[in-house]
Amino acid sequence: xxxxxxxxxxxxxxxxxxxxxxxxxxxxxxxxxxxxxxxxxxxxxxxxxxxxxxxxxxxxxxxxxxxxxxxxxxxxxxxxxxxxxxxxxxxxxxxxxxxxxxxxxxxxxxxxxxxxxxxxxxxxxxxxxxxxxxxxxxxxxxxxxxxxxxxxxxxxxxxxxxxxxxxxxxxxxxxxxxxxxxxxxxxxxxxxxxxxxxxxxxxxxxxxxxxxxxxxxxxxxxxxxxxxxxxxxxxxxxxxxxxxxxxxxxxxxxxxxxxxxxxxxxxxxxxxxxxxxxxxxxxxxxxxxxxxxxxxxxxxxxxxxxxxxxxxxxxxxxxxxxxxxxxxxxxxxxxxxxxxxxxxxxxxxxxxxxxxxxxxxxxxxxxxxxxxxxxxxxxxxxxxxxxxxxx
Length: 391
Ligand SMILES: *Cc1c(COP(=O)(O)O)cnc(C)c1O
Hints:
By secondary structure, the protein is of the alpha/beta class. The protein folds into two domains: about 220 residues, TIM Barrel, CATH 3.20.20; about 130 residues, Lyase, Ornithine Decarboxylase, Chain A, domain 1, CATH 2.40.37. The chain is built from twelve helices and 19 strands. The strands form four sheets. Strands 8-7-6-5-4-3-2-9 form an eight-stranded parallel beta sheet. Strands 11-14-17-16-15 form a five-stranded antiparallel beta sheet, with no helix packed on it. A four-stranded mixed beta sheet has the order 18-10-1-19. It binds pyridoxal-5'-phosphate.
């Protein structure tokens, strides 16, 4: 039996009416601004999650153009894909399975990718890969300063430092950095951040006393780049802000001259008038109280449009934001255009989210509507929507 070709998905992509436009100059400009704001000598652009939905390699290149000198990803496969695209700058990856048969670790070491190490198991796995490759791996020791995610807890830190030191002596690997990610990263003024940073400084001191380093220290993600210059250390790690999104409830990216890079649009595929008392979409959760014009948008939850946006005024059409009416379906939803069509007709472009300075809703506004944030919105956009890049 012949295998079903993967092309099926691509055909759907080519036929899809929805468009994702990525303005790469926005990423480049945003990185330039953030780099000028940061006090650190190094700047890591975080491009995990397919560059926060903007495209891994394109986002990385745009960030490097803006002055980033490091790239950060979660997965080894992402890091390797960046190398395969010809990117030679330092890359740190921080999420992988520490097992001897994880050949991705070997590939990462062979590709000169720095690896985060937060446990003795991870250290051993990286050391094994280094030995087999005959190449000294560069590692960044990760402290768990309270997030309880990756990293070694402070009480386990001395053991990790000692084991690292032994492997350094054998020239198997080299510790280049030390880092932590704050549990209250998105609430810069939170008092827990000060305690976490004190622990981090203590851990770095211990490592230096043991003879490791000098270690490149990095703690701050977007919110702390903008709000806590005292946490910048030797490198900052920027995600949300470099894509022009808000990293914290009280931070408006536009106030820092940052603008969103990503816009989602689609053409209206139908415009029609319905009388008062008409139920709209499944279960008639919405009813018209008067004669209304409705527009049909060919995007739904299969494209990453959250059901929770129903009733929210988020869709720009005819120069104004209009509310989504009725339940969002798998491939489509309706927009309430108002009592008059106001010149809006089939084929007109609707803008779902983009740059708020143009009157569109931002991904952050969409996030707020579903009690989340802009990052969840942009990461949900389905691969079947083609990304188009503007330089
Ligand atoms: C995602 C991530 C970042 C970037 O966070 P933003 O808030 O998007 O700037 C930084 N560091 C680590 C470890 C991350 O996982």
